[in-house]
Amino acid sequence: MKKGIIATSCLAAGLMIGGRVFAAPPAGDAEKGKAVFEDNCAVCHNADSDEKKMGPGLKGVTKKAKLKNGKAPTDANIKAIINAGGNGMPAYSDMLSDDERDNVLAYLKTL
């Protein structure tokens, strides 16, 4: 019984003092993502406007209620589009590394 109380107390103290110890670090580096975006995405997508180029403009894409496909702009839904492509957009699942896709997503969140 005492061991359980001590373990629970230590866990609680650890969460209060350094709750971030258990939190995952944010994925992606927006600066690196900007470079990947400019090299791979900017040909077809505007970053500074929501006006369509060849593909939709991506300014504010993560803040919109819905993506063009009707889904919420969650990390998973945006990554699925990046990975699978569609509507003339190539699939980037094999062209970009996981880190590069995370970096692009981090950059899109800054737009």
Explain briefly what this protein structure is:
The chain has 111 residues and is an all-alpha fold. Helices cover 44% and strands 0% of the residues. The chain has helices spanning 2-18, 30-40, 75-84, 98-108.
Which key features would you list for this structure?
single chain; about 110 residues; mainly alpha; globular
Report on this model:
- The protein is an all-alpha fold and 111 residues long.
- It has 4 helices and no strands.
- α2 crosses α4.
- The N and C termini lie far apart (53 Å).
- Mean pLDDT is 85; it is low at 6-13.
Based on secondary structure, the structural category is mainly alpha
Taking the sheet with the most strands, its summary is: none
> Hey, roughly how much beta strand do the residues contain?
under 5%
How many beta strands in the DSSP annotation?
A: 0
Query: What number is the mean pLDDT?
Result: 85
- Helix content estimate: 40-55%
Compute the separation of the termini in Å.
53 Å
Outline type? globular
List the helices and strands in order.
HHHH
Number of helices: 4
Low-confidence stretches: 6-13
Rg, Cα atoms, Å:
19 Å
